[in-house]
Amino acid sequence: MNRYSKQIKLVVFDTAGTICDGPGDLSARWKEDDGKGCKAPVIPFHEMLLNHDIECDWATIRKPMGTYKPIHLKMLMEDASVKSQWMAKYGKSYDQNDLDLLLVEYRELLSKYIIDEDLAQPIAGTKECFERLREGGCGIGFDTGYFSSDAKALNDVLEKTFDIKADVTTNGEIVPGRPSPFMIFDCMQKMYEINHEAISCNQVVKVDDTAVGIESGNRAGAWTIGVYASGSDDYETLSAANPDFLVPDIKYVADIIFGTIGA
C-alpha cells in the first residue's frame, strides 16, 4: 500500500461503470443484458458482431473492458469462438482491413449509445462525491478507453444535463491507455497547467471499475480504489488487480480518501 504523506490533490475517475452507466435491468431494450454497469461499450460490440452473423455473449465482450477500443476489438477478434465463426462466414482469417472496417461500424454505434439517456445516467452519489472532493481541495479528472469525440460527447452530457464536470480529462486516443499509467500522468500534467502546483504520485487516487484501470493506477504509483458493484468487473476480478481499497460504488470514495487515506 502507498504511504500517505500529503493531502490528496487529484482523483482520476473512469467514466462508464464508475461515475455513469451504472447497473440496472435494461433487458426490455437488450435481452442479453447482464444487469451490470458499463453497458454502453458492450452493446455496440455485440450489435456489430451480430451484423456479421457472429454470436458473442456479453461476458466475453467484457473481458478486455477498460482498454482502448481498437485494442478491445482486436482482443475480441482473437477469441476462439469469434475467430472460428469469422472463418466459417468469410472463409479466411480476419486481417487489418477487416479490423479497420469493423472499427468504423463500432464507432458509429458507440457514438449513439454513449449518450443514450439510459446509459449516460450518473451513478447515485456521484455529484455528492465530487462536491465533497472539491471542498476538500481535490481536483477531479476523467479518463476513459473511449475515443476523443465520444468522450467529449459524454462529458458534455454529464456537465450540461447533470452538472457533473471534471477539472481535467484524457482518453486512450490522446495517450496510451490502460493498463499503462499515462492517462493518469496526463491528468496530473493538466492539473499542473491549471494550478502551477506539482503533484506527487502518492497525492493521486485512481478510481475504476476494471482491473486494467486498477493496474494503471498501481503502475502510476497512485492510490487505487476499485468499485466492484457499479461497473464491469466483479469483486474477485478487481481484487486480483491488488487495489488499495475495494468499495461497492462511488458513494464510498470520499469517505476512503478523507477518512482512511488522509486520516
Structure in words:
- By secondary structure, the protein is an alpha/beta fold.
- Helix content is about 45%, strand content about 10%.
- The chain has 11 helices and 6 strands.
- It has helices at about 40-50, 60, 70-75, 80-90, 95-115, 125-135, 150-160, 180-195, 210-220, 235-240, 255-260; strands at about 10-15, 140-145, 170, 205-210, 225, 245.
- The chain has a 6-stranded parallel β-sheet with strand order 3-2-1-4-5-6, sandwiched between helices.
- Helix 9 (about 210-220) links the parallel strand 4 (about 205-210) and strand 5.
- The longest helix is centred in the middle third of the chain and has 18 residues, at about 95-115.
- The protein is globular, with a radius of gyration of 18 Å.
- The model is unreliable at about 1-5 (pLDDT under 50).
Topology, please?
Elements lengths: L9 E5 L27 H9 L7 H5 L6 H9 L2 H11 L5 H18 L12 H10 L3 E5 L4 H15 L5 E2 L12 H14 L8 E5 L2 H10 L2 E5 L7 H6 L4 E3 L5 H9 L2
Parallel strand pairs: 1-2, 1-4, 2-3, 4-5, 5-6
Question: Mean pLDDT, rounded to whole units?
Answer: 95
The largest beta-sheet arranges its strands as: 3-2-1-4-5-6
Query: What share of residues are in beta strands?
Result: 5-15%
Structural class: alpha/beta
Dominant shape: globular
CA-CA gap between termini: 15 Å
SSE arrangement, N to C: EHHHHHHEHEHEHEHEH
Q: Could you tell me the number of beta strands?
A: 6
Residue runs with pLDDT of under 50 for 5 or more positions: 1-5
Give the helix proportion (percent range): 40-55%
Helix count? 11
Major sheet characteristics? 6 strands, parallel
Q: Whole-number radius of gyration?
A: 18 Å
